[in-house]
C-alpha cells in the first residue's frame, strides 16, 4: 500500500490548512448540504496528495476513449438496439419507461434537431486480478467535475511545491477537462449558427455543485465572448414554446441554441408531469441537446450489460483492434432476466454476494447494493421486478495510502481506492459524427471501506493522478 509521498507529512497541520484555503480561494468548492446558503460555499472534499495510477493504465483508457465514445454515439442512434435492449427494463422501471416513451414520441415524429452533443465520461477502477482498468460505467448525462478536477490538479501541484517536492509535479498529467468539455458546447453553438441564441444550463431546483457549473459558464464566455449562458430550472420553463421551425423560445422570445442538462437524470428531479412535458418540448425543439434523450438511454446500466455480451460491440465497431481494446476494459455484467442466463446470475448473487454489485437504472450515487445486502434485496423483489436490475462483478482494486480532507472531519492517513474518469465530447447524428474529441480526466477517491464514491452525493473526494 503505497502513496505518492511517504505519509504522514512533516508540518502536516500547516500544509492541510494551506490546502484548504487554496481550495476555497480557487473555487474547489460546493454549497453545503448541511447548512445550505446561496451566498456561501465550503471547500469540496479532496485528497491532500495525488494518488498513484500506473502510467500504462492511464494511457490505455485515454487512448480508448475516442472509440468508446463512437460506440456510445452509434448505440444511441440504433433504434432497434435500444428498443430490444430496454424492452424488459421499461416494464418494471418506471423512470426508464418515461424516458423511453419520450424518446419514442420524438423518434416517431422526427427529431427537431438531428444533431446531439454528448459530454461523456467513462469511469474505471483498477482491477487487481485482471491487472488493468475495468469500466464501472459510462456517463452520458450531467457528467460533472470537469471544472473542479482541473483545479484539483493545480491544488496538488501547489501542495507538492509547498512540501519541497517540486520535481514530482512532472508526474501529474495536464488536465484540460474544463477547456475540453466547454469546447464541445462552444462547437455546438457554432453549428447552430445564430449569434443571438443562448446556451441554457438546465439545472436542479437547488444547486449544490455551483462552482463546477459556474467555471464552465465562465470558460464558455472566455472561449467565445459572443455566447450568453443562462441558467434555468424546470420550474422556470412553463412558458417555453416552439417557433415555426421548432426553435426553442423562452420568455421574451429568447432563442436557445444549446441545452446543457445538469438535471433530469433522476426521477425525483421531475416534480410533476409538467416537468416531463417541458423535457418533451426541449426534445422536440431544434436546440442541440446535451444530452438528447437517446444519449441518456444509451448510458443506462441495462445497455451497458447488453454491450458486454459477446458479439454485441461488433454491431457498432468494425475494426477488430478497436473491438479488442473496448472489450479489454469491460468487466463481467449479467442480466437478471427470466431466462436461463438470468437465473444463473440470480443464483450466483445469492451464493457469492460479496463478489458482485447490484445496480438499478439510476445515476447520481448511493443507489447500488453490495455484499450481504444483495440477497436481502433480491428476495424482497418479485421475479419480474428483478429484470430492472443488472448484476456486475465487483471490481477489486488495491488500496493505497492518502488523506481525505473533509469539512468538519478529522484528517488521518487512510487506505483509499480511486476511480478514474475520462472525458470526451461528441457531436453527431444518426448518419454522421461531426466531432469526437478528448476532454481531460477526473479522479475520485474514497475510503477503501466505502462502497459508493460520488463527491456530489457525499461519498468521495476529488483527487488527481500521480503517474508511475
UniProtKB/TrEMBL annotation:
<feature type="binding site">
    <location>
        <position position="137"/>
    </location>
    <ligand>
        <name>Mg(2+)</name>
    </ligand>
</feature>
<protein>
    <recommendedName>
        <fullName>Glutathione synthetase</fullName>
        <ecNumber>6.3.2.3</ecNumber>
    </recommendedName>
</protein>
<dbReference type="GO" id="GO:0005829">
    <property type="term" value="C:cytosol"/>
</dbReference>
<feature type="binding site">
    <location>
        <begin position="359"/>
        <end position="368"/>
    </location>
    <ligand>
        <name>ATP</name>
    </ligand>
</feature>
<dbReference type="InterPro" id="IPR016185">
    <property type="entry name" value="PreATP-grasp_dom_sf"/>
</dbReference>
<dbReference type="GO" id="GO:0000287">
    <property type="term" value="F:magnesium ion binding"/>
</dbReference>
<feature type="binding site">
    <location>
        <position position="446"/>
    </location>
    <ligand>
        <name>ATP</name>
    </ligand>
</feature>
<keyword id="KW-0436">Ligase</keyword>
<dbReference type="InterPro" id="IPR014049">
    <property type="entry name" value="Glutathione_synthase_N_euk"/>
</dbReference>
<feature type="binding site">
    <location>
        <position position="419"/>
    </location>
    <ligand>
        <name>ATP</name>
    </ligand>
</feature>
<keyword id="KW-0547">Nucleotide-binding</keyword>
<comment type="similarity">
    <text>Belongs to the eukaryotic GSH synthase family.</text>
</comment>
<dbReference type="InterPro" id="IPR037013">
    <property type="entry name" value="GSH-S_sub-bd_sf"/>
</dbReference>
<feature type="binding site">
    <location>
        <position position="363"/>
    </location>
    <ligand>
        <name>Mg(2+)</name>
    </ligand>
</feature>
<comment type="pathway">
    <text>Sulfur metabolism; glutathione biosynthesis; glutathione from L-cysteine and L-glutamate: step 2/2.</text>
</comment>
<keyword id="KW-0317">Glutathione biosynthesis</keyword>
<feature type="binding site">
    <location>
        <position position="301"/>
    </location>
    <ligand>
        <name>ATP</name>
    </ligand>
</feature>
<comment type="subunit">
    <text>Homodimer.</text>
</comment>
<feature type="binding site">
    <location>
        <position position="213"/>
    </location>
    <ligand>
        <name>substrate</name>
    </ligand>
</feature>
<feature type="domain" description="Glutathione synthase substrate-binding">
    <location>
        <begin position="197"/>
        <end position="298"/>
    </location>
</feature>
<feature type="binding site">
    <location>
        <begin position="392"/>
        <end position="395"/>
    </location>
    <ligand>
        <name>ATP</name>
    </ligand>
</feature>
<feature type="binding site">
    <location>
        <position position="444"/>
    </location>
    <ligand>
        <name>substrate</name>
    </ligand>
</feature>
<feature type="binding site">
    <location>
        <position position="139"/>
    </location>
    <ligand>
        <name>Mg(2+)</name>
    </ligand>
</feature>
<dbReference type="InterPro" id="IPR014709">
    <property type="entry name" value="Glutathione_synthase_C_euk"/>
</dbReference>
<keyword id="KW-0479">Metal-binding</keyword>
<feature type="binding site">
    <location>
        <position position="137"/>
    </location>
    <ligand>
        <name>ATP</name>
    </ligand>
</feature>
<dbReference type="InterPro" id="IPR004887">
    <property type="entry name" value="GSH_synth_subst-bd"/>
</dbReference>
<keyword id="KW-0067">ATP-binding</keyword>
<dbReference type="InterPro" id="IPR014042">
    <property type="entry name" value="Glutathione_synthase_a-hlx"/>
</dbReference>
<dbReference type="GO" id="GO:0005524">
    <property type="term" value="F:ATP binding"/>
</dbReference>
<dbReference type="Pfam" id="PF03199">
    <property type="entry name" value="GSH_synthase"/>
</dbReference>
<dbReference type="GO" id="GO:0043295">
    <property type="term" value="F:glutathione binding"/>
</dbReference>
<dbReference type="GO" id="GO:0004363">
    <property type="term" value="F:glutathione synthase activity"/>
</dbReference>
<feature type="binding site">
    <location>
        <position position="370"/>
    </location>
    <ligand>
        <name>ATP</name>
    </ligand>
</feature>
<keyword id="KW-0460">Magnesium</keyword>
<dbReference type="Pfam" id="PF03917">
    <property type="entry name" value="GSH_synth_ATP"/>
</dbReference>
<dbReference type="InterPro" id="IPR005615">
    <property type="entry name" value="Glutathione_synthase"/>
</dbReference>
<feature type="binding site">
    <location>
        <position position="452"/>
    </location>
    <ligand>
        <name>ATP</name>
    </ligand>
</feature>
<feature type="binding site">
    <location>
        <position position="121"/>
    </location>
    <ligand>
        <name>substrate</name>
    </ligand>
</feature>
Amino acid at each position: 500500500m503505497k502513496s505518492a509521498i511517504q505519509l504522514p507529512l512533516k508540518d502536516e497541520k500547516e500544509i492541510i490548512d494551506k490546502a484548504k484555503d487554496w481550495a476555497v480561494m480557487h473555487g474547489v468548492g460546493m454549497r453545503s448540504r448541511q447548512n445550505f446558503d446561496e451566498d456561501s460555499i465550503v471547500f469540496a472534499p479532496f485528497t491532500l496528495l495525488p494518488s498513484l495510477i500506473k502510467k500504462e493504465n492511464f494511457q490505455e483508457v485515454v487512448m480508448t476513449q475516442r472509440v468508446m465514445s463512437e460506440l456510445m454515439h452509434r448505440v444511441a442512434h440504433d433504434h432497434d438496439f435500444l428498443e430490444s435492449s430496454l424492452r424488459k427494463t421499461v416494464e418494471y422501471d418506471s423512470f426508464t419507461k418515461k424516458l423511453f416513451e419520450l424518446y419514442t414520441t420524438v423518434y416517431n415524429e422526427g427529431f427537431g434537431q438531428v444533431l446531439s452533443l454528448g459530454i461523456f465520461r467513462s469511469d474505471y477502477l483498477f482491477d487487481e486480478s485482471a491487472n488493468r482498468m475495468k469500466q464501472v460505467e459510462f456517463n452520458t448525462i450531467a457528467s460533472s467535475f470537469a471544472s473542479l478536477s482541473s483545479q484539483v490538479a493545480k491544488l496538488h501541484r501547489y501542495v507538492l511545491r509547498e512540501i519541497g517536492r517540486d520535481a514530482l509535479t512532472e508526474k501529474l498529467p495536464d488536465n484540460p477537462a474544463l477547456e475540453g468539455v466547454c469546447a464541445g458546447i462552444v462547437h455546438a453553438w457554432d453549428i447552430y449558427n445564430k449569434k443571438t441564441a443562448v446556451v441554457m444550463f438546465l439545472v436542479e431546483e437547488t444547486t449544490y455543485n455551483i462552482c463546477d457549473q459556474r467555471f464552465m459558464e465562465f470558460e464558455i464566455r472566455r472561449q467565445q465572448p459572443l455566447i450568453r449562458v443562462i441558467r434555468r430550472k424546470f420550474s422556470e420553463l412553463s412558458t417555453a414554446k416552439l417557433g415555426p421551425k421548432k426553435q426553442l423560445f423562452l420568455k421574451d422570445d429568447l432563442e436557445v441554441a444549446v441545452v446543457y442538462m445538469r438535471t433530469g437524470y433522476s426521477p425525483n428531479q421531475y416534480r410533476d408531469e409538467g416537468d416531463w412535458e417541458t423535457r418533451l418540448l426541449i426534445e422536440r425543439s431544434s436546440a442541440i441537446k446535451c444530452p438528447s434523450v437517446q444519449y441518456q438511454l444509451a448510458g443506462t446500466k441495462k445497455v451497458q450489460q447488453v454491450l458486454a455480451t459477446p458479439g454485441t460491440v461488433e454491431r457498432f465497431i468494425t475494426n477488430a483492434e478497436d473491438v479488442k481494446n473496448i472489450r479489454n476494459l469491460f468487466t463481467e455484467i449479467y442480466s437478471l432476466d427470466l431466462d436461463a442466463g438470468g437465473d444463473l446470475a440470480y443464483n450466483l448473487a445469492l451464493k457469492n454476494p460479496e463478489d458482485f454489485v447490484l445496480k438499478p437504472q439510476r445515476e447520481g450515487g448511493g443507489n447500488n447494493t453490495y455484499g450481504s445486502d444483495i440477497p436481502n434485496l433480491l428476495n424482497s423483489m418479485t421475479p419480474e421486478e428483478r429484470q430492472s436490475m443488472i448484476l456486475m462483478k465487483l471490481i477489486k482494486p488495491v488500496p493505497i495510502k492518502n488523506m481525505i480532507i473533509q469539512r468538519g472531519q478529522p484528517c488521518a492517513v487512510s487506505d483509499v481506492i480511486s476511480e478514474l474518469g475520462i472525458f470526451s465530447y461528441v457531436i453527431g447524428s444518426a448518419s454522421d459524427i461531426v466531432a469526437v474529441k478528448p476532454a481531460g480526466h477526473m479522479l475520485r477517491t474514497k475510503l477503501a471501506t466505502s462502497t459508493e464514491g460520488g463527491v456530489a452525493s457525499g461519498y468521495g473526494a476529488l483527487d488527481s493522478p500521480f503517474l508511475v
